[in-house]
Automatic annotation (TrEMBL), chains A, B:
Alphabetical list of InterPro entries matching this protein: Bact_HTH_transcr_reg (IPR050679), Chorismate_lyase_/UTRA_dom_sf (IPR028978), Tscrpt_reg_HTH_GntR (IPR000524), UTRA (IPR011663), WH-like_DNA-bd_sf (IPR036388), WH_DNA-bd_sf (IPR036390)
Transmembrane segments annotated in the record for this chain: none
Domain (HTH gntR-type): residue spans on this chain: 3-71
GO terms, biological process: negative regulation of DNA-templated transcription
Protein's name in the database: UTRA domain-containing protein
Coiled-coil blocks: none
Length: 235, 235
DNA sequence: TAACCAATCTGGTCTATACCAGTTTAAATC
DNA sequence: GATTTAAACTGGTATAGACCAGATTGGTTA
């Protein structure tokens, strides 16, 4: 319990982080250095670090080191604010990168949702989004090109909600959301530079137009420590 | 990557679970047995098991063994269904245990929310909830006794929404929700029989009456593999 | 039959060590 | 000064072994 070595080490770093002796984003000493300082093996040090990672206090970059987790951004789906907007409003710097884009035939699930024939073309978009230089979110989405003709020719690193508003006079309205706390699939983990198996937050979102048509189906994989979900339910 | 021993072992068990050769709730061989069978050390075996745990496929019971995770229950806060109801509807067996109950003075945050003087009495209730015998959820809540006089004398293992409806002609309506994927605090982990540091889902909920008064402030800690959140946003 | 107890089994924690694969750094070279 | 290259450093993976504490089991005793 409280006397275990890894537990004490967790407490040590937790305090340093809470007192801001270790500041947000700063690097921890290497696992070997910590082990030397506390006369512990790397196995024990890593157990403590992994627990702090699960707590969301620190995170790692592959073969670079361990870092203090920056504050999480608050994501409020019902506000209908774009990623860029709510991240900026909370004092962070957003950035979006397009990893892949292609027109592809809709699978059965997507086709049914969008009320289009199976194999009808939809736009697949794969993006990585950053907060303060840190990759926090992988997005894979299917966009209903029937409702948004020519959208594949636009700059798809920008905010989609802006694009919809400006070019198509459409806005996000109703949405269905599914949240699941689980480890990141290896493809998403790779894209985020995380070792596979790290905990993450999976969000599946279906966006509807004002007239109840499916505009977009979105699969998001967040670093678990990067986001807090905030929802108000009003009947 | 894919050639790593732990990774292959994960694949092995993932397949057994998906094919239902290993059935929901059943026990895996002991870490030592697995190690012997695959000529791996316990460290490696444990890494694979811990990854599968993060994935939500298996879970452990302290010093008892590893078990296949049962299907997650879907929790839809906007449906206003009670725990007992939605768990039952999905074919599981719910059970609630009261761990602690006491009248205590409201702290500043609670008092402000409930619009009562600081230190005014509120009912603190601490419960553990089970799905099919498995503890999945720790609830700590503060109940506004001004709106619900005498509630502390009722049977508080039952559904609160039922109690409110039957005895007070009140119903849950609006609510504010905050979700965060993080490791369970040690108190909650102990209550769930989980080793501290395991990932979990933390939900903070504020329940309002129809006339916008705060009925209850609720802190929930879920096993991360036991629940999926489902929300429909309709403006 | 019921209660107890000891052996055994389980995961939990920990030491010591090794090699690998990317990253960073600093020296050597152009 | 800019570029290349090699050494040093980082976390990632893995072996081998040890002891602990709670859970289970089966036999012994009352």
């Amino acid at each position: 319990m409280s006397t275990h070595h890894y537990y004490q080490l967790q407490g040590y770093f937790r305090e340093l982080i809470e007192l801001k002796t270790l500041k947000s984003g700063s690097k921890l000493p290497s696992e070997r250095e910590i082990g030397e300082q506390f006369k512990l093996t790397r196995v024990t040090v890593r157990q403590a670090l992994q627990n702090l990672e699960a707590e969301g206090l620190i995170y790692r970059q592959n073969r670079k080191g361990w870092f203090v987790t920056p504050p999480a951004v608050v994501y409020n789906p019902s506000s209908h604010l774009s990623f860029n907007l709510y991240v900026t409003e909370q004092g962070f710097v957003p950035h979006t990168e397009k990893l892949m884009q292609q027109i592809e035939p809709a699978n059965a699930y997507i086709a049914q949702l969008m009320n289009i024939p199976e194999h009808a073309p939809v736009l697949y978009l794969h993006r990585r989004r950053y907060i303060n230089q840190r990759p926090v979110l992988i997005e894979k989405m299917y966009i209903n090109t029937r409702l948004l003709p020519g959208i594949e020719k636009e700059d798809l690193t920008q905010s989609l909600s802006q694009l919809l508003k400006n070019n198509y006079q459409r806005e996000y309205r109703d949405m269905d959301l599914v949240f699941k706390s689980t480890s990141l699939p290896s493809s998403a983990a790779d894209d985020l530079g995380i070792s596979a198996g790290q905990p993450g937050l999976h969000i599946e979102r279906i966006n509807y137009t004002a007239d109840k048509q499916v505009l977009e189906v979105d699969y998001e994989f967040w670093r678990h420590d990067a986001v807090t979900i905030n929802i108000a339910i009003r009947d």
